[in-house]
Automatic annotation (TrEMBL):
It comes from Rhizobium sophoriradicis. This is 1-acyl-sn-glycerol-3-phosphate acyltransferase. GO terms for biological process: lipid metabolic process. It is found in: Membrane. Residues 67-186 form the Phospholipid/glycerol acyltransferase domain. InterPro entries: Plipid/glycerol_acylTrfase.
Amino acid sequence: MIAWLRIALAAVVILAVSIVLIPLQLLALSFDWRLRRRLPRVWHRIICYCLGIRVRVTGRLEDRRPLMLCSNHSSWMDIMVISAVADVAFIAKIEVAEWPIFGTLAKLQKSVFVVREERRKTGHQANEIAGRMADGEIIVLFPEGTTSDGNRLLEVKSSLFGAAAMAVPASPTGTVVVQPVAVAYTRVHGIAMGRYHRPLAAWPGDIELLPHLLDIVRCGAIDAEVSFGEAVDYRADSNRKEVSATIASRIRNLLNSRLRGREIS
């Protein structure tokens, strides 16, 4: 009974906040106001609170621009958690645009939808990413290309770092800052979440969204830790595979440190 009351209350608050903020965001998008970058963070902070997702941050977001964040990806919650701590936009596969709920939210956040199979569109998409990064927007890339079970970092696809390479010529400094980020789900109701229970937070993609969302709301208390690592400067002469390997190693170390509750050298 208490769980269903929590779900009902969360739904009412989320609906009320959305009714106020979504029209304002649509207006900001129409006129390309900078407010469109800030409103999603306000919305996601409130949603995290309603869903019982408690976010803790370690490390520091880079001040330098242009900036691309590269994060591990285990759940739809990653988007809310990262958006709750920084004004960001995401690179997403084109299929996401058609997803119920998430597709609409992605458009409201002005995500960049990429068609990886059609090379003729790649240049246009990369130019959009480059232009927005040069204008000071923070772009988030999930270089695994899919979601995991939350216990490990999957293989990082170096080809996805092409967006950073394409943005280099548009950078006033000739450099794109690429910063590793790890999102780890570490506790449920204050108790350490082991590897066998972490799939409660993970959403590998073969689980239906609504039941997973209801499970999260019923739970009502999940701790998420966002860790910002040491950035890499991506220049015209940088090797994409070397940069991706370095970023992958740093994400993996950050993730393992948070999951184990201690620093890993």
